[in-house]
Amino acid sequence: MQIVEKFRQSLPSHLRTMRVKGEPTIWLPKSNAMKYERFQGYLNDRQFMIVDHDECEKLAHHHYDLEPNFVCYNPENYKKNQSFWLINDPVHCQVDAKARKPYRYLRAIEAAYDAKYGGDIYFSRSIHRNPLFHGSDTDWRHDRGHSLAQLAEVIDLNPDKTKAGKRLVTDKKSRNVTLFNDLRFWSYKHAKEAREHDYDQWHKKVMDRAMAYNTFENPNRLSVVITIARSVAEFSYFRYRVKGAVITDEYRAAQAQRGRIGGLKSKGGGRPKVDEKLIAEIKLLKNVHKYSVRKIASELGISKTAVSKYAK
Predict the structure, then answer these.
(1) Across-strand partners of 27?
(2) Burial 46-61 (b: 16+ CB within 10 A, else e)
(3) Which of 34, 92, 183, 275 has the greatest number of CB atoms lying within 10 Å of its CB?
(4) Which residues pair with 86 in a beta bridge?
(5) Does 189 or 143 have the greater pLDDT score?
(6) Using one digit for the tens of pLDDT, what is the confidence trace for 8-30?
(7) pTM
(8) Angle made by CA atoms 61, 65, 69, in degrees to the nearest 5
(9) 236 contacts 185 by C-beta, under 8 angstroms
(10) Residue 251: pLDDT band by 50, 70, 90 thresholds?
(11) Per-residue pLDDT for 286 more than 90?
(12) Burial of 269 (0-12, 13-18, 19+ CB in 10 A)
């Protein structure tokens, strides 16, 4: 079938390969990686959407509303399988794409498939089964490609994934602000640890923590949880810098003083109150110490736009 050749052609020349399950991965040329059961089948672009199952009661092509292009079964237990859907327009997945709409859309679709079809929510989509491995039990189904919109037609992108619980809203404003605060304080303590892994692993860890925190009597919708988790994950991984140290109580207090989160009725969805002390600090750094706007923003932990505004 053409899908076999399409998958083969989609593979990069070198693959991050797991020679033994659970052991560290190594980079191998494609010809060598084919000898192993698990690898990362993409580098710059995701050409397949993947869902992993540990307890699928049906054969996969009967389990989903939209038939996968192929399914890799565990030869010893058909309930454990990974299903693959061909994406017509590959989705860029490198670091600079994490905040872009196509990548976020794909990740949201995969999370919704996990929710609807009982997929493994801890599956990161990095290392997966090799359907061309000689020991794989691969069921090649069809050659049709899919747009992201077509993949999304059969699922609800806003399901209530978390059951109602007894968690209190500790912030006076709302559940989402409580969730945001709890999640960011947790992530700050693990900021160093985050950079020991790739972003996808960290994003998944933050998302799992957000879902665990979203146990209010009336939980936030999945779309809200995804947005908050992404915001916290991106800031703590890409932008958070305090001389390489874990965030301190003093830094948290300063950030809390400089701006409030949401809740204020304004065009931008929330604006900080005018802080006379902050304005004085900015003017001192700008007029006396001759700091640039960029350096002032870095020093005080605020945006360059805020520096320019307050300097006036």
Answers:
(1) 16
(2) bbbbbbbbeebeeebe
(3) 183
(4) 48
(5) 143
(6) 999 999 999 999 988 889 999 99
(7) 0.56
(8) 45
(9) no
(10) low
(11) no
(12) exposed
pLDDT of residue 189: 78
The Cα-based distances of 172 to 166, 219, 257, 261, 262 in angstroms read: 17, 16, 17, 12, 12
Specify the pairing of strand 70-74 against strand 128-129.
unpaired
Closest Cα to residue 148, out of 236, 28, 70, 48? 48
Q: How far apart are CA 55 and CA 70, in angstroms?
A: 18
Q: Which long-range contacts (CB under 8 A, 24 or more apart) does 240-245 make?
A: 240/188, 240/191, 241/298, 244/192, 245/192
HEC per residue, the chain: CHHHHHHHHHCCCEEEEECCCCCCCEEEEHHHHCCCCEECCCCCEEEEEEEEECCCCCCHHHHCCCCCCEEEEECCEEEEEEEEEEEEEEEECCHHHCCCHHHHHHHHHHHHHHHHHCCCCCCCCCCEECCCCCCCEEEECCCCCECHHHHHCCCCCCCCCCCCCCECCCCCCCHHHHHHHHHHHHHHHCHHHHCCCCHHHHHHHHHHHHHHHCCECCCCCHHHHHHHHHHHHHHHHHHCCCCCCCCCHHHHHHHHHHCCCCCCCCCCCCCCCCCHHHHHHHHHHHHHCCCCHHHHHHHHCCCHHHHHHHHC
Position 5 scores a pLDDT of 94
202 neighbors 126 (Cβ within 8 angstroms): no
CB hemisphere CA count around 235 (13 angstroms): 18
How many Å apart are CA 93 and CA 226, to the nearest integer? 17
Nearest-angstrom CA–CA distance, 178 and 171: 5
